[in-house]
Amino acid sequence: MTNASTQPETASFDFSEESLSALTSWSEQVKQVTLATGEKVWLAKGYEEVRLILSDARFGAGDEPMHRASWSEEERKIGRLLHNDPPQHGWYRQPLNKAFSARRIQQLEPRIREIAREQLDVLSKRENRSADLIETFALPVPERVIHEILGILPVFRSEFREIIEGLLRRGQTAEESRAVVDQALDHMSRVIEEIRRAPTGGLLDELIATGQFADVVLADLAVTLLMGGYLTITGMVTESVAVLSQNPEARRNLLAGAKQSAETVEELLRYITVIQYGVDRVAREHITLGDQEIKAGERVVAFLPAANRDPALCPHPEAMDATRRRVRHASFGFGPHQCLGQQLARVELDVMLTELFGRFPTMQPARACEALPRRIETVIGGFDRFPVTW
């Protein structure tokens, strides 16, 4: 245990390949690091430590995400759902729970499958049997699904793609961050105004009808749902295709039946961990984490990718094993902030991957995946482009 009077040794950590490679050699499960911004934070890589950080009330949600520059209290912000602790967090989340319940998502499964098949029809018309999978399938499907759930009409949809990319981008200045937040809230406010005039039958209709939230809050919640609603699935689909192209057994398991496809999807969620920079929290009081003393007010990063590869979670965690007994991986988090859309994510991935490989059994990346550009500038991982052939 670190003595309270001793300054802990810090390591430079910028989430580069070199930093991530060094992470595997750490003997500590929790270590203080200095980020590229100069900020010192505690980085937790152990599964049990990550689970504690995300489920223990002694760690609270920060006022702003770590990737976004801090601004004054008076400025417009996004993320009430993400950056409030109970009981306030529950007040925002409770009206959303029904819309993302397992029962409601299962009712949506036929529509999700229909959308996936429509996009595969587009893909099948490519004369040279090649395409960018992101442009034609991995992005349009979840994008259409979350917009339909919210009740956002097609005329409003195209502008949101660039906006959401901006909201999730790391390394922006405060001015850049303010501009994209203003753009997001202004555009969503116009959507809400239109829905008030002409209801569309989506979740925003339901939330408006409750009268619980002012329009500024509705806009915030809706943008937050978009942030989590499609780029995560886009990243998971392309990364999954990359993994499955190297693992024929897992690919066969995916198509062997409903039980097997669910097993394969769950293992892919553990193995890939598309939230690539972890989740940050703030210590609300002094607490011992691992062998370290964390002081009240210090920021802690629950590094999900490392937690999902911790031998304490499962045997041979570095291997993708589609028949692995289901484990409670860290990809959806834990505690009150556990991912609201996790059931939707599971169903979308299952439908999209089974429909994709069922329709195009020979599909594979057109180039070595190691040579493809990755989304290193955003908090959600994946590829910038993903050319495939079949």
Automatic annotation (TrEMBL):
GO CC annotation terms, alphabetical: cytoplasm
Molecular function via GO: heme binding; iron ion binding; monooxygenase activity; oxidoreductase activity, acting on paired donors, with incorporation or reduction of molecular oxygen
Superkingdom of the source species: Bacteria
Signal peptide: none
Location within or outside the cell: Cytoplasm
InterPro entries: Cyt_P450 (IPR001128), Cyt_P450_B (IPR002397), Cyt_P450_CS (IPR017972), Cyt_P450_sf (IPR036396)
Keywords: Cytoplasm, Heme, Iron, Metal-binding, Monooxygenase, Oxidoreductase
Family that this chain belongs to: Belongs to the cytochrome P450 family.
Listed name of the protein: Cytochrome P450
Species name: Saccharopolyspora phatthalungensis
